[in-house]
């Protein structure tokens, strides 16, 4: 089916990159988590936006099943993804001035605390601590990556936009992102990073408090933990910016492309695996290092099965509801 669609540079790159998209220096993935066909049929082609509305392959299969031409034409006009999707437009309108204010406040306080903590960390740094800092950085990245996966999975899978306060303010962006993945590339710095900066705030606040209330000896004793907390909070704060870059196919600075290419931050091809409907895997979006191992141990599907069994709630019910609001 996919072979009827004109092949693009994207297809070639997809084939070339999928198998080798994880931690190149640590392991190679022998088989892709999603096949090329699954990706092409069930996700939006972000580097080929003119083909985003509907794929040639699915049009042809619809042609076979629809009895009349009108129905076929109607189907072809309904966007499956992108800014013309009716559900995406409805969700975008729910971004309120109150939400914007919360994001602005979080971003400014967080940046102040980042600068303050950086100065304090550097002031207490001793060269013999360098190995501690490297280990703290690695654990900080892994914690942030796992945390990004857990929060992303929770928000994608459970709850509803109709929930008071949390729904419109914190779940709405996740719903919008699945049906219009490129909307994130049109968001400014505040809208992109406000919520992640908010998560990093209490960690940075506690860290600054520790620096000001503890003696020098105590600070030195706990230096590795402080470095870990600082770096972890920086990676948490940066996560949605990194996520935005993974959806940006034009105009990225060379250093970002370098970090993506070497899988130091979330690569674009790697994150495409999450964007294959029904969005049930690859939730980690800081570096994505944990995605493959978590998928292989069926971490997310096991958690979902336990929750569904104990509560009766179906995973992704609200996400599916929004995806179906195509017209
Ligand atoms: Zn998602
Ligand atoms: Zn995404």
Automatic annotation (TrEMBL):
Major site of localization recorded for this protein: membrane
Molecular functions per Gene Ontology: oxidoreductase activity
Annotated region (Disordered), positions in chain: 62-85
Topology class, membrane: Multi-pass membrane protein
Domain Lipid desaturase: 141-318
Entry's Gene Ontology BP terms: fatty acid metabolic process
GO cellular component: membrane
Subcellular location: Membrane
Keywords, comma-separated and alphabetical: Membrane, Transmembrane, Transmembrane helix
Pfam families per the UniProt record, alphabetical: Lipid_desat (PF10520)
Segments traversing the membrane: 101-122, 134-155
Family: Belongs to the fatty acid desaturase CarF family.
PANTHER family: PLASMANYLETHANOLAMINE DESATURASE 1, TRANSMEMBRANE PROTEIN 189
Listed name of the protein: Ubiquitin-conjugating enzyme E2 variant
UniProt organism field: Anopheles darlingi
Lineage start: Eukaryota, Metazoa, Ecdysozoa, Arthropoda, Hexapoda
């Amino acid at each position: 089916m996919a072979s009827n669609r004109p092949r693009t540079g994207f297809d070639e790159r997809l084939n070339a990159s999928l198998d080798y998209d994880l931690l190149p220096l640590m392991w190679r993935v022998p088989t892709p988590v999603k096949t090329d066909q699954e990706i092409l049929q069930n996700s939006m082609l972000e580097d080929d936006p003119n083909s985003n509305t509907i794929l040639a392959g699915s049009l042809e299969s619809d042609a076979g099943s629809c009895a009349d031409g009108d129905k076929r034409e109607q189907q072809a006009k309904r966007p499956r993804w992108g800014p013309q999707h009716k559900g995406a437009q409805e969700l975008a309108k729910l971004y309120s001035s109150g939400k914007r204010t919360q994001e602005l406040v979080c971003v400014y306080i967080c940046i102040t605390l980042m600068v303050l903590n950086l100065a304090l960390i550097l002031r207490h740094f001793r060269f013999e601590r360098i190995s501690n800092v490297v280990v703290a950085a690695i654990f900080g990245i892994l914690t942030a990556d796992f945390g990004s996966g857990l929060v992303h999975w929770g928000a994608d899978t459970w709850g509803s936009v109709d929930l008071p306060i949390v729904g419109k303010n914190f779940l709405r962006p996740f719903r919008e992102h699945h049906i219009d993945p490129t909307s994130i590339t049109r968001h400014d710095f505040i809208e992109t990073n406000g919520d992640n900066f908010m998560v990093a705030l209490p960690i940075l606040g506690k860290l600054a408090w520790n620096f000001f209330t503890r003696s020098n000896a105590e600070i030195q004793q706990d230096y590795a933990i402080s470095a870990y907390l600082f770096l972890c909070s920086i990676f948490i704060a940066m996560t949605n910016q990194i996520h935005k870059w993974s959806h940006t196919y034009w105009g990225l600075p060379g250093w970002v492309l370098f970090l993506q290419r070497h899988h130091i931050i979330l690569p674009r091809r790697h994150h495409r695996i999450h964007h294959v409907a029904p969005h049930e895997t690859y939730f980690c979006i800081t570096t994505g290092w944990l995605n493959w191992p978590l998928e292989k141990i069926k971490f997310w599907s096991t958690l979902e099965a336990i929750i569904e069994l104990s509560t009766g709630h179906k995973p992704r019910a609200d996400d599916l509801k929004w995806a179906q609001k195509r017209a």
